[in-house]
From TrEMBL:
Record domain Aminotransferase class I/classII large: where: 24-356
A GO molecular-function annotation: transaminase activity
Keywords for the protein's UniProt record, in alphabetical order: Aminotransferase, Pyridoxal phosphate, Transferase
Family: Belongs to the class-I pyridoxal-phosphate-dependent aminotransferase family.
Protein name: Aminotransferase
Enzyme class label: transferase
Assembly with partners or alone: Homodimer.
Record-linked CDD domains: AAT_like
InterPro entries referenced in this protein's UniProt entry, alphabetically: Aminotransferase_I/II_large, AspAT/PAT-like, NHTrfase_class1_PyrdxlP-BS, PyrdxlP-dep_Trfase, PyrdxlP-dep_Trfase_major
Species in which this protein is naturally found: Halogeometricum rufum
Co-factor(s): pyridoxal 5'-phosphate
Any one Gene Ontology BP term: amino acid metabolic process
EC number: 2.6.1.-
Length: 369
């Protein structure tokens, strides 16, 4: 599958195929959490519904002041560095645009496998995407990244905890990637949207490097189970903020106000127990799902973070055609490995964000038995 395949990611194509199937299908394609959001988030929405009408108007383009201050305190940065965005997706777009606008190259170094929207954004911005295969552990191959980097490299873009491998990069790895970026006058862009889903204890934000080459993105779609709210943010070095705010304003005007109000209340009032409870539930799902993959004779990744499992079935590569066959004949919908690059093209990715994960695992075990 060539780069053109990233022009229109396959997520919706697979979901639409599953929706048209003539049988019951367990959907494990997209990372839409199935668990409850924090109660405080619902409370914030109810409170907002009764607010004065002036609170229904445009918010500050860069985000509500109180929300930016809350994010900044949690991230130990100045609020002036925070831009609230329409999900982590826009945050990534803004950071990639800033990398291009510096005039120091137009190439993005990505891992292989990679979340498909990254190379899609690179192409949309007029840049090039170079994918570097990861190590067997799922961690970036820093030596290979260093070899691939050049004066044409605008940024190294990574995601930790990682979708789709489940790898969690330790501080030494992130610091080494930063050094590669610095050696080539490039930026290091780190998408940390799965930061609440670290099962290893090894995750440490790239912001702790305290470098003017580090840009970090995140959001609340996954951690609060609110993918439809589209509230994310980016943390920029101060000198890169003005142009990012301008682009955000020209493209979106602002981020939705009700979502920001609700997220702010949830941040202030939600106990750490909420997030730990979610991690415990996912640990159980991952364990039972991979047990069933053992029964199916599959190879698989054991995620140290996020909530995806990559599986490889003998003589059944992860092509779109085979994914459609699984939908039709096993009643399970996953994502073809070829959608994420070449390194795991023989694998299929399953998102463990359904209460029917055990049922899906049983179906796969029966199908491949």
């Amino acid at each position: 599958m060539g780069d053109d395949a990233y022009d229109e990611p396959l997520f919706f194509q697979v979901m639409q195929y599953a929706a048209r199937a003539d049988r019951d299908v367990v959907g494990m394609v997209s990372g839409d959490p199935d668990w409850e959001p924090p109660q405080a988030l619902r409370d914030g929405l109810r409170e907002y519904a009764d607010a004065d009408s002036d609170q229904f108007q445009y918010p500050p383009s860069e985000g509500l002041r109180e929300l930016r201050a809350e994010i900044a305190e949690r991230r130990n940065v100045d609020p002036a560095r925070v831009v609230v965005t329409n999900g982590a997706g826009e945050a990534n777009y803004l950071t990639m645009a800033r990398a291009m606008e510096r005039g120091s190259g137009s190439e993005f170094l990505l891992t292989d496998p990679v979340y498909p929207y990254y190379p899609g954004k690179a192409t949309m911005l007029g840049g090039e995407a170079t994918k570097v295969p990861v190590l067997e552990s799922g961690d970036p191959d820093v030596a290979a990244m260093r070899e691939a980097a050049s004066p044409e490299t605008a940024a190294i873009l990574v995601n930790t905890p990682n979708n789709p491998t489940g790898a969690v990069y330790d501080r030494e790895t992130v610091e080494a990637l930063h050094d590669v970026a610095a050696e080539n006058d490039a930026l290091l862009l780190v998408d940390e949207v799965y930061d609440h889903f670290d099962f290893s204890g090894d995750f440490e934000s790239a912001l702790t490097l305290d470098s003017d080459r580090v840009l970090v993105t995140s959001g609340y779609s996954k951690s609060m189970a609110i993918t439809g709210f589209r509230v994310g943010y980016a943390v920029f070095p101060e000198e890169l903020v003005p142009e990012a705010k301008t682009r955000h304003m020209l493209v979106n005007v602002a981020t939705n106000r009700p979502g920001q109000v609700a997220v702010l209340r949830a941040l202030r009032e939600t106990s750490p127990d909420y997030y730990e409870g979610t991690r415990d539930m996912l640990r159980e799902r991952i364990g039972s799902f991979t047990d069933a993959l053992d029964a199916a004779g599959a190879a698989y990744t054991s995620p140290r973070g996020a909530f995806y499992v990559l599986a490889r079935f003998e003589d059944f590569p992860g092509t779109l055609s085979n994914v459609e066959t699984l939908i039709d004949e096993a009643g399970v919908a996953g994502m073809p490995g070829e959608a994420f690059g070449d390194a795991y093209a023989d694998w299929i990715r399953f998102a463990l964000v359904t209460p029917r994960a055990d049922e899906a695992a049983s179906r796969l075990a029966d199908y491949f038995a």
